[in-house]
Design a protein that fits this description.
The protein has about 280 residues and is an all-beta fold. It has two domains: about 100 residues, Thrombin, subunit H (Beta Barrel); about 100 residues, Thrombin, subunit H (Beta Barrel). The chain contains one helix and 15 strands; from the N terminus they run ββββββαβββββββββ. The strands form two sheets. It has a six-stranded antiparallel barrel with strand order 1-2-3-6-5-4. The chain has a six-stranded antiparallel barrel with strand order 8-9-10-15-12-11. A hairpin with a 2-residue loop joins β1 and β2.
Length: about 280
Amino acid sequence: MRHLVAVLAALVLSVPALTAPASAAAAPPAPTLTEVDFTGAVALSGCSGSVVRPPAYQRTDPALVLTNGHCVRFLEPREVVVDVPADRKVTLLDTDGEGSIATLHAVSLVYATMYTTDVALYRLAVTYGDLEAMGTRALELSPDQPAVGIDVRVVSGYWRHIYSCQADGYVHELREGRWTWQGSMRYTEDCRTKGGTSGSPVVDAATGKVVAVNNTGNEDGESCTDNNPCEVDEDGHVTVRRGIGYAQRTHQVVPCLTGGGRVDLAAPGCGLPEPSA
């Protein structure tokens, strides 16, 4: 993505003392960027993640952790896992990322897939209200498709590092090894993500909301192999961008989160794939 630049052309008139009318349209102000820190960020074994919530939620709802499907395990290309028991430790970071607030426990794998997207949600043994009592909060998931050119921050709880770049565009199909993902966000080259950043929340710097989840990058310039995803357009043309990272959008997850720390795949607007019969 590139920043959009508004260019105003001034009309040079030969008639003296003429000024622009008071109703003339002004250039829209540039978005104000928020200070993105490690609030809500978590570290998992080998991966990153974040505690997230939908826009509408109850303080008594169990808190959810967002990460990648491949951070659970390398799932089969069309596999979808829904609501199975889990026992996984999650380290909740403090705002500066230098220390931790608590070690939390995921008690259920609410959802996981690597089919068309690469996303997983864990349910914690604590509620959103419990998190607030600890002096922290969950990150809000944006229900809107993120625009091209927005400033984003990739917040890695594993590495305790924040990457800054823009959303450079969206990919028709992103292929890596056995997996194919649709509509993936491509970063500008400033976000040189690496192993361990998988599952990091991608935060819109203007709103502070999560718009995607980081999941891969082309490491060696190979085409469509493990750790070297390739882009495939509508006509089947393949493009390889060495060193470029990608994320999976999360706005389609929001309608699935109807409360109680569960995913309702039948909810109107839910864009997550369902298990095969």
